[in-house]
Structure prediction request, 201 residues.
Amino acid sequence: METLTREIQAGIRPNDALTRLKDGNKRFLQNKKTERDLLTQVEKTGGGQFPFAALLSCIDSRVPAELVFDQGIGDIFNVRVAGNIVNEDILGSLEYSCKVAGSKLVLVLGHTRCGAVTSACKHVELGNITPLLNKIQPAVGSVVKGDLTPELIEEVAVKNVENSIEQIRNDSPILKEMEDNGEIVIAGAIYDVVSGAVEFL
Prediction:
């Protein structure tokens, strides 16, 4: 499998980047992972990196992005925070990934059975977790109108991904302009922790 170079990255269109992730998840589900020499990739990326995508995903240990999308060293930037929420530092990381380092895709990846989303739905308060969960509350408020059910929690997870995408566009003029100019795609997806499948929104 090729190690990404500046030339290869430059030739990848935004929609191609999305296709690379979709195809990678298909291989993952079929247990047909790409053969890679990881130590060679370490050597080849030692002098620089040219990832084709930047992922904003949850810290959940069941959702290792490089594995579920069958990617190697130097292929994707991976920004992880509980509940895949957006703040200034995360926006800065995504802006660096795309504007400075040349990535063609920002993918916000939520997942099923998310502990952060569940805790937000149940209005958990604990130390620094409280302000983090508060960032998920807009999704909770727009989905949960009565009794909380497992199905509603999953709907909140989807809405939270959609809200994060909207916040990226609203709070990052850099990424919004790049998307408007066709330089990048900003998209969302949900990973199923039971099946391993990624549903793109």
About this structure: The radius of gyration is 17 Å.
